[in-house]
């Protein structure tokens, strides 16, 4: 198996090694990095949890997970024999100081065996209530004293609101330097999301059009067809605004709206994103009523199956006021974007799963064609599809073949599947490799997280203080509540959905 000489010897300590995130995402990602030769010769994964397992039992468990969830399919015996000896398990309760002594001993033993001082990455794949105790115990046990070699990865959610996010940032800052802290928003690791920057800043033709003079409005829509399943216990404390808009959708907005960074370094890129968040218009309570819409799904049918409403899901509160749908109209008050609305929407149990950014351009200033030629005329649109289709489409007007002059909308398409034969890595593969390389570009800086919380707080507070009178207010397999249609229709637009046949 090839190894990577650019990545230093690395030990991954995965808190929550027996959990769902490690099973479905982290372990398959690390295995695929190994398979593709991205891992160094000297690497170790130490999984932890309270479950009683030994190294072999943990390896068996990961093998089953990787077989089930890896994008590269079932593991080959020879590759597994190369990978498995790098995997260890240590039973530990994160609240117990003695556990950290044992981690220290494991790490020391590997250092001696390898004859070198490796980088150590502590990955916190545990419930957020454990983030502070783990960070504090790592520091108290002197396991994270060297900022050059030790890093801490924090999963989402980063805080429950602005105050708790600030508190967590403060606590982390007591024990770690910012360059050691990797706050994950896995959306930022997706190929199509990374491509937004490549597309915007490596093509000269876009920049002159990328502003209020040519762009009429922007839509960012992340829809899911599934309900909350058995996560209602957690989801009821969160909701669509916290779970999706505060992080993933606002990060997408930043990528669309940011100014060109001076270079592609972590701080430059993140500075430009923070600029966007700081320029975004704040909401007064009246603005919230005007510009933000919430919804909750009712029982219904999806693809011939009867499905429960949110309040009937397992562990859900039957009177829950939690939104499973949110749509918000934002403005970025700066020279580039003044007056251009950004409509963001997300929700569960909607008609289709899709993440799409649509940039709608203004109409041509003057039509030279007769009315009948332009019956099907649409505005130019740039449609960036993140999932499940991975593509960028530019919708233009063209003459339909025939003797008369009839205009039609046609798509110029860049489609990943048709363009490249290599399979794209999963977001977690990119992010884990970046963590090993010490590249924070695709991770959230502390001030970025706080700026995003600041922006959504008035909406959260207003919704918390006003119990919704009409929940549930949208049916399964729909596109959300009628009020979301009205939000955008008031400005003369409608939500854009990529046709199903768009994917070839
Ligand atoms: P999970 O399946 O409930 O796993 C929780 C893990 O924490 C288990 O490995 C559990 O191990 C361990 N744990 C709990 N209490 C512990 C203690 N006192 N000491 C030591 N270990 C303890 O949770 P998850 O879904 O993997 O989520 C983990 C984190 O990732 C959460 O912050 C979540 O928000 C975030 N996240 C998850 C996903 C996902 O797809 N699952 C996606 C995005 C973000 P034992 O049971 O063996 O003790």
From TrEMBL:
Question: What EC number(s) is this enzyme filed under?
Answer: 1.1.1.49
Q: Which Gene3D superfamilies match?
A: Dihydrodipicolinate Reductase, domain 2 (3.30.360.10), NAD(P)-binding Rossmann-like Domain (3.40.50.720)
Residue ranges of the Glucose-6-phosphate dehydrogenase NAD-binding domain? 13-195
Top class in the EC scheme:
oxidoreductase
Q: Which reaction does it catalyse?
A: D-glucose 6-phosphate + NADP(+) = 6-phospho-D-glucono-1,5-lactone + NADPH + H(+)
Binding-site positions, NADP(+): 50, 93-94, 156
Keywords associated with the record: Carbohydrate metabolism, Glucose metabolism, NADP, Oxidoreductase
Spans traversing the lipid bilayer: none
Which residues constitute the catalytic centre? 248
Name the InterPro entries for this protein. Answer: G6P_DH (IPR001282), G6P_DH_AS (IPR019796), G6P_DH_C (IPR022675), G6P_DH_NAD-bd (IPR022674), NAD(P)-bd_dom_sf (IPR036291)
Descriptive protein name:
Glucose-6-phosphate 1-dehydrogenase
The source organism is Hymenobacter aranciens
Phylogenetic classification of the source organism: Bacteria, Pseudomonadati, Bacteroidota, Cytophagia, Cytophagales
Q: What's the name of its gene? A: zwf
């Amino acid at each position: 198996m090839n190894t990577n000489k650019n990545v230093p010897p690395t030990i991954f300590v995965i808190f929550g090694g027996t959990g769902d995130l490690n099973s479905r995402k982290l372990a398959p990602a690390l295995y695929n990095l190994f398979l593709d030769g991205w891992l160094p010769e000297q690497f170790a994964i130490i999984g932890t949890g309270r479950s009683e397992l030994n190294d072999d039992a943990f390896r068996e468990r990961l093998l089953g997970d990787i077989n089930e969830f890896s994008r590269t399919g079932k593991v080959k015996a020879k590759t597994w024999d190369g990978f498995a000896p790098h995997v260890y398990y240590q039973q530990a309760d994160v609240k117990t100081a003695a556990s950290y002594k044992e981690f220290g001993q494991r790490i020391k033993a590997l250092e001696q065996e390898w004859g070198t001082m490796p980088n150590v990455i502590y990955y916190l794949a545990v419930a957020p209530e454990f983030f502070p105790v783990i960070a504090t115990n790592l520091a108290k046990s002197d396991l994270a004293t060297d900022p050059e070699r030790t890093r801490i990865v924090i999963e989402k959610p980063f805080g429950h609101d602005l105050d708790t996010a600030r508190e967590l940032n403060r606590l982390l800052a007591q024990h770690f330097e910012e360059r050691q802290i990797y706050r994950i928003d896995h959306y930022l690791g997706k190929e199509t999301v990374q491509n937004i920057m490549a597309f915007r800043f490596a093509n000269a033709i876009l920049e002159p059009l990328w502003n209020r003079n040519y762009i009429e409005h922007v839509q960012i829509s992340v829809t899911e067809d599934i309900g909350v399943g058995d996560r209602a216990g957690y989801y009821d404390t969160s909701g669509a605004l916290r779970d999706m808009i505060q992080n993933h959708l606002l990060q997408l907005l930043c990528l669309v709206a940011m100014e060109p960074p001076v270079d592609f370094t972590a701080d430059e890129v993140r500075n430009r994103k923070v600029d966007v968040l700081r320029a975004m218009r704040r909401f007064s309570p009246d603005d919230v009523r005007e510009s933000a819409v919430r919804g909750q799904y009712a029982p219904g049918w999806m693809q011939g199956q009867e499905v429960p409403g949110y309040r009937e899901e397992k562990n859900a509160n039957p009177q829950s006021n939690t939104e499973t749908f949110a749509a918000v109209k934002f403005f970025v008050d700066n020279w580039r974007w003044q007056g251009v609305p950004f409509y963001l929407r997300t929700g569960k149990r909607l008609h289709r799963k899709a993440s799409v950014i649509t940039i709608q351009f203004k109409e041509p200033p003057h039509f030279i064609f007769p009315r009948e030629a332009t019956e099907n005329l649409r505005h130019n649109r740039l449609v960036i599809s993140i999932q499940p289709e991975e593509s960028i489409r530019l919708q233009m007007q063209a003459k339909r073949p025939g003797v008369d002059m009839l205009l039609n909308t046609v798509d110029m398409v860049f489609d990943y599947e048709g363009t490249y034969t290599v399979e794209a890595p999963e977001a977690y593969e990119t992010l884990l490799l970046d963590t090993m390389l010490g590249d924070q570009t695709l991770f959230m800086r502390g001030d970025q997280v706080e700026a995003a919380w600041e922006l959504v707080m008035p909406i959260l507070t207003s919704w918390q203080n006003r119990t919704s009178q009409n929940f549930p207010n949208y049916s399964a397999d729909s596109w959300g509540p009628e009020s979301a249609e009205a939000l955008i229709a008031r400005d003369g637009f409608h939500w854009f959905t990529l046709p199903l046949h768009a994917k070839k």
